Amino acid sequence: MVIFSVIIHNENIVEDVMHVVLKNKYAKTVQLDREVKNYYDKNNELDIEQTTKLSFITKALLYKEIETVLFEKFGEENLIVYAVPVGQMNEKYTSELRNYIKAI
Predict the structure, then answer these.
(1) What is the dihedral of CA 69, 62, 22, 19, to 10 degrees?
(2) Cα separations (Å) of 26 from 49, 65, 70, 101?
(3) Verdict on whether the full-model pTM lies above 0.85
(4) Is the dihedral of CA 73, 76, 79, 80 positive or negative?
(5) pLDDT in tens, the chain (104 residues)
(6) Which long-range contacts (CB under 8 A, 24 or more apart) does 92-101 make?
(7) What are phi and psi for residue 86, nearest 5 degrees?
(8) Of 50, 38, 54, 67, which Cα lies nearest the Cα of 3?
């Protein structure tokens, strides 16, 4: 399992991204954080971008499929995607996720 994160630059597509993830059974639940600020260097000046972060737990082998679907539908310029491995998770929830999330 991995925690899959999607940084969304365009606020207008947040709910659409969430629906794609849930409709395709890539996740059982999603967490939405609208208070994300990205700080970066722009021509030696600090710049800030307000974004939304969508996170969910999914099967690691689905990473490429999810990335492809999201980029095709919403464009690479609107999203940053990444995943980090889940080292431990309680067995009851792990079982629920394995049975619910899309089969590979």
Answers:
(1) -20
(2) 27, 9, 11, 6
(3) yes
(4) positive
(5) 999 999 999 999 999 999 999 999 999 999 999 878 888 888 888 888 889 999 999 999 999 999 999 999 999 999 999 999 999 999 999 999 999 999 98
(6) 94/1, 96/28, 97/1, 97/28, 97/57, 97/58, 97/59, 98/59, 100/25, 100/28, 101/25, 101/26, 101/27, 101/28, 101/58, 101/59, 101/62
(7) -100, 115
(8) 54
CA distance 94 to 8: 27
The whole-angstrom separation of Cα 16 and Cα 73 is 10
Q: What are phi and psi of 59, to 5 degrees?
A: -75, 135
Q: What's the one-letter identity of residue 2?
A: V
**The residue to which tokens 């890539």 are assigned:** 26
DSSP 2-24: EEEEEEES-GGGHHHHHHHHHHT
